[in-house]
Every structure is written in C-alpha cells, then in structure tokens.
Amino acid sequence: MLPFSHFDFVIIVACYMLWAVWSLSEYLVLCVFPGFQVDAVVYLVDAYDKERFAESKKELDALLSDESLANVPFLILGNKIDIPYAASEDELRYHLGLTNFTTGKGKVNLVDSNVRPLEVFMCSIVRKMGYGDGFKWMSQYIN
Ligand SMILES: Nc1nc2c(ncn2[C@@H]2O[C@H](COP(=O)(O)OP(=O)(O)OP(=O)(O)O)[C@@H](O)[C@H]2O)c(=O)[nH]1
C-alpha cells in the first residue's frame, strides 16, 4: 500500500517530469518537500557520460550532506555499461569521490555502527543486468 493517494501520486509524477524536462537538480526536491520521508536513495549515473561526472558528483555531494538523509542507504547505480568505453566501477568510484567510502557489498551489518550504507553497483538498464544485485543489497537496510 502506497503512503499517498492516486491523486498525490499523479502530482508527484507530474512534478518529477517537469523537473526532468527543465533539468533541475534532484536535490531541489528535498527543499520543496522537506517533510517527505525518504527510505533510500537510488542515484543513477550514466557511466558513459564521463564529461558529466563532475556534475554528478556535485549533485551526489549535496544529497550526501543533507541532514535529513544522514541515515538513509544510498545505492549508486553506474548505468550503460553495455556501451564500450563506459567507465569501470573503480573509475566511477574515483570520479564520484567514493573510493574507500563505500560500506561493502553482500550482507554487512551496520546496525549500531552509525555508518550510512552506501555502495556502487554497475548496471545496464537496457540489458536488464546489474541493478538487481544493487536493489537486493539495498533491501537489507530498509525496514
Ligand atoms: N546503451 C544503453 N542505453 C541506455 C541505458 N539506459 C538508458 N539508455 C538510453 O539512454 C537514453 C536516455 O538518456 P539518459 O541518459 O537516460 O537521460 P538523458 O535524457 O540523456 O538526460 P540526463 O538525465 O540529463 O542524462 C535513452 O535512449 C535510453 O534508451 C543502458 O543501460 N544502456
């Protein structure tokens, strides 16, 4: 059961589409809906679009430093790895400033550690591969 009505859902989708069309920062969503409860963040990065890594890092940093997301698990998906010359996982971690900053794949118990779960998984949405492992990883941190 979704925590909002069908009408709310339509409004949320419509707002998101406007955001996408105007290429506004996803971070602004948090500013406009400050009380919105977020259980997890899935951050999709185009691993082929290396010229925009700096922009992706800036946006991610804004989300990571938001107090309301301090304990929220972050799943970073590096998409489009089916394209030759897409960045490798290590390369993406480096450009997003996540080297030595992720919390480990598989089952990692972070309860009582005060550490926010954060991990990078590479995927190809068109080939339907990679993201399943990421969502499985993330689900262990959502009650
Ligand atoms: N090869 C490949 N193409 C993909 C994949 N996922 C999405 N696409 C394609 O990417 C195109 C959409 O571009 P996106 O990069 O998602 O987004 P955008 O519209 O360019 O805008 P931004 O969000 O600003 O990057 C569509 O043609 C999709 O089919 C993937 O895993 N592999």
From TrEMBL:
Per UniProt, GTP binds at 79-82, 125-126
Gene3D superfamilies hit by this protein: P-loop containing nucleotide triphosphate hydrolases
Name it.
Answer: GTP-binding protein SAR1A
Which keywords has UniProt assigned to this entry? Endoplasmic reticulum, ER-Golgi transport, Golgi apparatus, GTP-binding, Membrane, Nucleotide-binding, Protein transport, Transmembrane, Transmembrane helix, Transport
Ranges annotated as spanning the membrane:
7-24
InterPro entries in the cross-refs? P-loop_NTPase (IPR027417), Small_GTPase_ARF/SAR (IPR006689), Small_GTPase_SAR1 (IPR006687)
List where this protein forms a coiled coil: none
Q: Which compartments is it annotated to reside in?
A: Endoplasmic reticulum; Golgi apparatus
Q: Name one GO biological process term.
A: intracellular protein transport
Q: Does the UniProt entry include the keyword Transmembrane helix?
A: yes
PROSITE patterns recorded: SAR1
GO CC, sorted alphabetically, is: endoplasmic reticulum; Golgi apparatus
Mention any Pfam family matching this sequence. Answer: Arf
Keyword Transmembrane in the entry? The reply is: yes
Family label: Belongs to the small GTPase superfamily. SAR1 family.
**Entry's Gene Ontology molecular function annotations:** GTP binding; GTPase activity
SUPFAM superfamilies in the record: P-loop containing nucleoside triphosphate hydrolases
